[in-house]
Amino acid sequence: MRRVHAERQLACPVCGGCRAAATVAKGSARARVASLVKRLVPGGSAAEQAEAARALARLCFDKGPNREYVRGCGGVTALVRLLAPGSSSAVHEWAARALLNLCLDNAKNQDDIRECGGVAALVRLLAPSGSVAVRWEAAGPLLCMCKESAKNRDSVRECGGVAALVGLLALGGPAAMHERAAGALANLCIKNSQNQDSVRECGGVAPLVCLLAPGHSAEVQRGAVGALGTLCTESLGNKDCVRECGGVVALVELLAPGGSAGVQRDVVKALNNLCYGSTENQDSVRECGGIIALVALLAPGGSDHVRQRAAVALRSVCFANTQNQDSVRECGGIAALVELLAPGGSAAVQEQAATTLQSVCHDNAQNRDSVRECGGIVALVGLLATACPAAVHRSAAGAIACLTRESVPSCEVVEACGGVAALEGVLACASSAVAHRCVADVLYDMGRIEQGVGEASQPKTNGDVLQSSSGGNAGGSGS
Fold it and tell me: What are the respective helix, strand and coil percentages of the chain, to the nearest 5?
């Protein structure tokens, strides 16, 4: 009851007594933190240092102000000092745990750890000679510090952290170790091509692929999938290496019905990155049944997030690849994508489905006919006629432009379903230059406007339409 009463007092924004109680509580917390930091000084007993570090770890777990108090009292430097060789395993373990909790949602503390030599100290604790508990704890702050900070990612690499983290992936180790090491490697590689290459050069791709195998927990598999996906955002060498290590096949196998939704969501993102700009990986996905698996994820009943990502992945898989485009049609993918355009659906899903239809139909007359026969043009015109976000209008206009290019039957369907009025409405008010151009192209093809009106001075190819409507990135690779 006393605790509940205190919480009610601190929640009151008006009462002077409540403000006084809050001030006392803050002062008490600062005093507690300062007392614990003093116990971290060199020369103290290992047991006392470990207990103080443990107490600080607990204080900083879910209390943002306490993290500030610890830094203000010099606690970051004191904790990093405890990571030095010669301290006991218990001291190393709890000091690393405290640093992890200090890093949570606190960029300043992350920077302070780096600036006082904490990255190098944590990397040293990853050595095989250390205990499993110490190595696991040391990987935690590195994982957290590299999520948002480019400087920290570079610092970990420069201190030898990439090779050290790859070493934690060795088969036979505990699952929690694998999960944390994979997560740290994924964060290290975010928008960092040097780190992506370094992971491959240190032999990190093969053990990550091994963690995708049946028998590993969903958490471990998800960590490995995330790392592989991030490794392949920019590096063609990594994309080839993942394929050569059996990674494409292993990823597709994780899409089997009944698998973890979280794992499958990340697998779809990884396949998107793997296939963007890599014909070899596009072909590999098709050959191991990946297109069928991705189309299955578009079915009603799945989460909108998974369906959206599956549509994006199909776009990368099919871009400028006729065999894959045909495969999507043959396994019912066009009808599935058209269904995603239905009124009342997620705008994000509709946007990606429309843009993927462009990729599937690019230079493929059979697929363009199939979209028309599945009611795709009617559905796309319907999106233009509703109050959808501008991005949906842009994607729908781009898809219609692709479908009507040199196709009299498609132009006739557009006119028959009231598409001319919808297109003219978008042309009149579209804030997006891309949507404006795509609509103008359709109207030009239908003979409704003169060449040169609405920035349509030069008729565009299907490829031009696809690239412009998808923001200049037809495949959509991303971290």
Answer: 70, 0, 30
Quote the strand ranges of 118-198, DSSP E.
Answer: none
Residues 198 and 146: their CA atoms lie apart, in Å, by 15
Cβ partners under 8 Å of residue 13, min gap 6: none
**Dist. CA 273–CA 317, nearest whole Å:** 10
Structure tokens at 144: 């957290």
Contact 298, 337 (CB under 8 A): yes
474 pLDDT band (50/70/90 cuts)? very low
pLDDT tens column, 89-131: 999 999 999 999 999 999 999 999 999 999 999 999 999 999 9
Domain boundaries, the chain: 32-159
Output the DSSP codes for 67-87.
HHHHHHTTHHHHHHHTTSTTS
Which residues, in sequence order, are CB contacts of 133 under 8 Å at separation 6+? Answer: 89, 93
226 within 8 A of 479, measured Cβ to Cβ: no
Angle made by CA atoms 69, 74, 78, in degrees to the nearest 5: 120
Q: How far is CA 318 from CA 85, 337, 355, 396, 470, in A?
A: 54, 13, 12, 18, 14
Superfamily of the domain at 32-159:
Leucine-rich Repeat Variant (1.25.10.10)
Among 274, 309, 273, 276, CA closest to 293 = 309
Give every CB contact of residue 424 below 8 A, 6+ residues apart in sequence.
Answer: 439, 443, 448
Pairwise CA distance, residues 65 & 67, whole Å: 5
Angle ∠(125,126,129) on CA atoms, nearest 5: 80
pLDDT digits (tens, 9 = 90+) for 244-253: 999 999 999 9
Task: In whole angstroms, give the CA distance from residue 136 to residue 179.
Answer: 10
* Res. 18: pLDDT tops 60: no
